Amino acid sequence: MEEAARLMYELFKNLGAWLVSGDQWTGPDGIAHRLAEHLQYSLLATLVAAAIALPVGLLIGHTGRGAFLAINLASFGRALPTVGLVVLVFLASGLSMWPVYIALVALAVPAIVTNTYAGMTAVDPDVKDAARGQGMRWHQVLFQVELPLALPLIMTGLRLALIQVVATATIAAYVSFGGLGRYVFDGLAQRDLVQVLGGAVLVAAVAVVLDLALSALQRFLFLPHSRLRSSGGTPTRTA
Asked: Are 85 and 106 in contact (CB under 8 A)?
């Protein structure tokens, strides 16, 4: 037990020294550069996934058509092995970032589609009927009534998708590209446990920081509306 505790202490001591080393943060292989690459892969993939999934989720949520197909396709997307998809696209397209981006987008789409659809279907039908009764056209009902009410769940879907993508973007290193996964794969190849743990800790830290930031943004954006709904009141003008 004492020997194991000593080895763990040495391991975490070396990990701490690796993380705070000035040399480790500079240069093309430094943490700052790898972090920028990782964020680039993650944010771009999430934006592309949102551009695909948001219209689909809004459409099926508004019309009620195609829900069964869309939800089952989303479930199929969750079941896809990410590394297997990377290898498949890699064999078809050659050495490029396309396999990584396709795999990350495929990973992010299901969470966005399902949460967007859930947010749209959660809108009270009486609210939509009242909007139509006031003469609002379908696109006005969609963008001025349904979408604002569904935004909290849509934001949750975007948040979940981004965190999943950040955690999985390490696969870029699997096909010889950058990102924080470079430390994990290089460390495994070199049998450098400190480097492997360093990469894993950095990925986890980025995921946690982004999750907390998006959670804070979501509360900031929607807390006033939730208070208004819970009070059952409406804004009033004061003279």
From this structure: yes
pTM of this prediction?
0.83
The rounded distance, in Å, linking the Cα atoms of 8 and 10 is 5
> Cβ distance 24 to 35 under 8 Å?
no
Q: For the chain, which residues make up each domain, given as ranges?
A: 30-177
Helix, strand and coil content of the chain, in percent to the nearest 5, comes to 85, 0, 15
Class at the top of the CATH hierarchy for domain 30-177? mainly alpha
The Cα 90–Cα 93 span in angstroms is: 5
pLDDT in tens, 21-78: 888 898 888 999 999 999 999 999 999 999 999 998 888 888 878 777 777 766 666 6
**Which is nearest to 35 in space by CA: 50, 47, 19, 49?**
19
Nearest Cα neighbor of 103 from 174, 189, 186, 156 is: 174
pLDDT digits (tens, 9 = 90+) for 107-149: 899 889 989 988 888 888 888 888 888 888 877 888 888 888 8
